[in-house]
Amino acid sequence: MSDETEVIFDQAGGLGIITLNRPVALNALTLGMCHAIEAKLRGWREDAQVTAVLIRGAGRAFCAGGDIRALYDLGLARDEYPYRFYHDEYRLNALIKQFPKPYIALINGIVMGGGVGVSVHGAHRIVGENLRFAMPETGIGLFPDVGGSYFLSRCPGQLGVFLALTGTRIGVADALYCGIATAYAPAERFTDLQAALARNRPIVDVLNELTQVPPDAPTLAQNRARIDRFFAHDRVEDIIQALEQESDDWAAQTRAAILGKSPISTKVALRQLREGAKLDFISCMQMEYRLANRFIEGADFYEGVRATVIDKGQPPKWRPDTLAGVSGPDVDAYFAPLGPRELKLEK
Fold first, then answer.
1. Among candidates 166, 161, 131, 130, which has minimal Cα distance to 148?
2. φ, ψ for residue 20 (rounded to 5)?
3. How far apart are CA 284 and CA 83, in angstroms?
4. Predicted pLDDT at 73
5. For a tag site, which of 89, 96, 143, 238 has the least CB within 10 Å?
6. Residues forming the active site
7. pTM
8. Residue 19: strand, helix, or coil
9. CATH of 7-341 given 3.90.226.10, 1.25.40.10, 3.40.1190.20, 1.10.1530.10
């Protein structure tokens, strides 16, 4: 077991076990946690005694994302921490995506942002009944990162674009429908799943025995045709206009959700997903590191965190405050190369 209290490592049989252990903070990731997990995975990758890796969260959440308050405070202080955090977090995401052994995430409760990054890139994402998945970054002046440009752009139809631009929270059935989760099991069976995997039983046999069909149908399916039609546009303004032409509550709520987010974040996110659909995973992560650098240096992230986390309940004052105020060159600047600061990852 690790000396790091924020993340605990154990081994049972051939199973390496990672437990995110900041339950009071909903297991939000810190830079130290990223470093500890990366080092352990690199060791387990070369250890013939470890045949699979499992990650889980302590308490009622899997992982609510990165430690936003630390990024806010140190970013305002112009410290290097935010740059290091995103650089090393993305390096960890890539290591998980390329991990040569089965990587299994047991996800129950909240999973957002950084928590998605340490789970969704593994081969098996098993979700419990209390799953609450979201990529809400545009609501705090950021963008759907940790590989969002890759996995969201590969959701069926335009579902990934819908999730990125609205920040909608989804549960078990919708996560399976979108391909974000691979199987469902009641959380009370997670212990049995872990024990069976520790006995080196074939993963397929364990999943066939202990997973099941979720009790509810996907709610996104009800609006799938409209989502695919509205969110196929390549301009956020055109998506908004298409929603305006509908007269029901769903369309009005969807439109309001998009318009409440940072205009620059929203436009960047849409382009990010369109670009990501054409790129391999490593190229997506390199693109996202460019975006992270620009958001660290911008204004909307700090305003978004102030409004939603620090001065809760106050509407953010975005700059610019309308979609029309964000030009094409404004968006282009976020995607410009970083030169010697580009993220370098193993392929």
1. 161
2. -70, 125
3. 17
4. 97
5. 238
6. 66, 114, 137, 145
7. 0.96
8. strand
9. 3.90.226.10
